Amino acid sequence: MKSTIRRPRRFDLLAAVKGVAAQTGKEAAIWLFALKQTLAVLLAMWVSLRFELGQPSTAMVTVYVLMHPQSGMVLTKSAYRILGTLFGAAACLVLFALFPQQRVLFLLGLSLWVGFCTAGAALNRNFRCYGFTLAGYTAAMVGLSLVNHPMSFFAYASNRISEVAVGILCAGLVGDLIFPQHLGSTIVRSVQSRYTEFCGFVQALFTGKMSPRDVEGTHLRFIHSVLTLESLRGASLLETTQTPRGDARLRRMNRDFMAASTTLHSIDQLMKRLQKAESPAAPGLVLLAESLAEALLNDGEPARTEAEAHRSSRRIAAYNATLDERVAALHHDLGTPPDSPTTLDFVTGVELIRRLAQEIQDYTGAYAAGPEEHSPLGSEDLHFASRTDPAVAILNGIRAMLTLFLISMFWIGTSWQYGNVAVMSVAIGCSLFAPAPDPTKALTGGLIGHALGFPAAFICKFLILPHLSGFGMLCAVLVPFLLVGSWLAMSPKTANYSLAYSVMVCFMIAPSNSMQYDPMYMLNFGNALMLGLAAAAVMFAIFIPPTGSWFKHRIPKMLRRQVLKVCSAPLSGLEHRFESGTRDLLQKIAAGQSAQNSPDQNALDWMFLALETGRAVIHLRQAAQNMSQQLRLKEVDESIALIQQLFRRPTGGNHAAAITGVENAIDAIRSQQNRETAGHLLDGDLHQMTTSLHFIRIALLDDETALAASTNGPAPRHRGEISYAA
């Protein structure tokens, strides 16, 4: 008789100690970054003062904009900041040359430039977006400061570029020399946690241990992880630790992960639909799926290390080697003829499970590849496809242009002495916050940050600094005020205020070799900054707001367009472009990792339907392409055209026509297959075409999809076939 061994309580205590240590380590890392950031700001201020640059505050603000816990982020942002600054200064020079003494035309040209850069920032991702942002507000800062003194352009522009360069240099030096944190380690942790979570998700999903809400949340986390890893990969290219082989391996891992997660979702949906229809094929498919999930585990736990992933890879290979025997035995137990609907259900599920096993093996192999020099580069196109609605980008540009021009006309009409400062604030606010998921919320957060920084800067400059002297005392006084900005960044609730607070403190205190103490100028300057930002927030809130229902209804249309593309686009590299582009469309929803409202839920439903249908169409086209021209079936091409028409215009008539077209294609393939081919369950292009079409048919008959809701329910069943709806 075996005795039950109780786990000692010291293990629970040990776990608690580890949890406290992990939390303490996280807090320590945050404060370490805050101290590094403050040190870099003070260093930038000292260098600017030492070389007698005009505005040391510009170098200080540059550090706040660039500084990041990982050095790769600092290097990449620095490169795009330099490019953006140069392009912005060049655009300002062109405007001065075209309209040297025509202020209205100059401001109109500046508004057009800022609108163009705002639209470019919305169309691009990651740091290309940042380059457009810098090009927009750099032209505004230089031009509005010299609008009445254009002859001083070259001296002012060279001074500003020097200050930006100082800020970049100080941020890079402090980030790389003092307790550096490279992106490589962050990427490794992200890859490891995602692989472990995916293996656990497969096991929990196939054993029925997850609720639908948990499944949805996990898929959103996976989408967010794909976009995050792509962003980190792009930022790490300037790190010396990253090589072309390592970059290619990350691209391939993202590709394999997206393919496996899409197939996993397709299997889950197929299982649910078959079980609702009480198809006799469902129990056998469940057994195959559960045995695949078991092959992923090491002693009941998902693989974490590369060595454990190697063992998982061998078990998955063994699973694939014995899959044909298991399928043959299950089909024998099923006892249905090869051309029966139940057999078609069964072989469709088997095809998906086989594909998932191969995709997981590829993903596991890439994960367990170990040192990047042992990972082959390959020649496939693995470029991530970003998808942005051009209408959204154009409206962002128009909104920024109108806001800037209206405030400019208010400045001219009222002869407001500080109107140029308000216009500059509008340009900075529109350029920085227009690409945000919720620009109005971001602008409001910036306004609150300015409101917090303004009294802090006033107290520091007029109540403390006049009584002190020397650079050391200046630093000692500034440190507490600067650390407040870093403290605000530590909490998600106040993180939106952090940068605006720090910018306000730096610009308002404006340290220089010869300090100017003018309270009225500071009050007028600060009020103009906040009024300009408030005007931008109001404009974004009332003029076709980006968070309105019109924008959210655009996402399903963009997702349907993804399916339209896979029906006709060239097949080379299409699968990866489709997978990445479809996920990229949901970046704003994935960032929150939950569907917040009905439009978000509708967009999420359309994404799942687009992924499973689009992948099936791609596999159908690939199999059809392998057929000789004499054996090509016009019914297959017609079914693809009808699916394309359905996703272009989801109506009841198109829905019924698409189902009819798919059924006709299945019948045509069956009539072409001879008895020997029909007897094989897992071989041939005709088989893949049949299973792809049958999967599409089952999805189209499901009355719980977003497509069914758009077409007022599923089309009537044809020829007495089984209903796969609830």
Care to describe what's here?
This protein has 726 residues and is an all-alpha fold. It has 3 domains: 28-181 and 389-542, no CATH class; 183-374, Methane Monooxygenase Hydroxylase, Chain G, domain 1 (Up-down Bundle), CATH 1.20.58; 557-710, no CATH class. It has 27 helices and 2 strands. Strands 1-2 form a two-stranded antiparallel ribbon. Helix 7 (183-206) packs antiparallel against helix 10 and helix 15 (439-464) runs parallel beside helix 17. It is elongated and about 95 Å long.
Keywords:
726 residues; mainly alpha; Methane Monooxygenase Hydroxylase, Chain G, domain 1; 3 domains; 27 helices; 2 strands; 76% helix; disordered N terminus; disordered C terminus
In a nutshell, what does this entry contain?
This is Membrane transport protein, FUSC family, putative. With 726 residues, this protein is an all-alpha fold. The chain is built from 27 helices and two strands.
Distance N terminus to C terminus? Answer: 49 Å
Quickly give the structural class: mainly alpha
Q: What best-fitting shape do the alpha-carbon axes yield?
A: elongated
Strand order of the largest sheet: 1-2
How many domains is the backbone divided into? 3
Please report the number of helical segments: 27
* SSE arrangement, N to C: HHHHHHHHHHEEHHHHHHHHHHHHHHHHH
Keywords: Cell membrane, Membrane, Transmembrane, Transmembrane helix, Transport
Protein name: Membrane transport protein, FUSC family, putative
InterPro entries: PHBA_efflux_AaeB/fusaric-R (IPR006726)
Pfam families: FUSC (PF04632)
